[in-house]
Amino acid sequence: MKIVIGSDHAGYEYKAKLVTLLTGKGIEVEDIGPFSTDSVDYPDFAHAVSENVEQGKSDFGILLCGSAQGVTMTANKHQKVRAALCWMTDIAALARQHNNANVLTLPARFIAYEYAEQIVETFLSTEFEGGRHENRVNKIACSSC
């Protein structure tokens, strides 16, 4: 499994810890930044992660910012990205099971880091159910875009 991860300055500390966690589990991780808490523009990193997932270079993406709203909105502009803002493990499981989400977004200012770890683990270990959900997921991308 390969993960691409990025954040803004508000999500930097959680991102750095998640990179260590995931690589420690033997997961290949591409960290596209930022590499400090200096202020940055979240769309730059959300687009980079989304393009990576869209092009099939990574299996999943993870994005973090203060509320995760901005990175989620940005990521979902990409036609092959299904980014899910998750603040609970149940939401992460459903995002994978029912929506086949391929980018997880986390609100670093609103969840404890330990809970962020649990959400990531749930997201990565949950399979898409397919079946009745497949047709719905196939309708998400904008056919006229």
UniProtKB/TrEMBL annotation:
Task: State the active site.
Answer: C65 (proton acceptor), H98 (proton donor)
**Keyword presence, Isomerase:** yes
Family annotation (Pfam families): LacAB_rpiB
Q: Name one GO molecular function term.
A: ribose-5-phosphate isomerase activity
Please indicate which superkingdom the organism of origin belongs to.
Bacteria
Kindly list the biological process annotations in GO that this record carries: D-allose catabolic process; pentose-phosphate shunt, non-oxidative branch
UniProt KW keywords: Isomerase
- What does the entry list as the binding residues for D-ribulose 5-phosphate? D8, H9, G66, S67, A68, Q69, G70, N99, R109, R132, R136
The answer to whether keyword Protein biosynthesis applies is: no
Q: What is its EC number?
A: 5.3.1.6
Q: Which InterPro entries match?
A: RpiB, RpiB_LacA_LacB, RpiB_LacA_LacB_sf
NCBIfam families this protein is in? Answer: PRK05571.1, rpiB, rpiB_lacA_lacB
Family to which this protein belongs: Belongs to the LacAB/RpiB family.
Q: What is this protein called?
A: Ribose 5-phosphate isomerase B
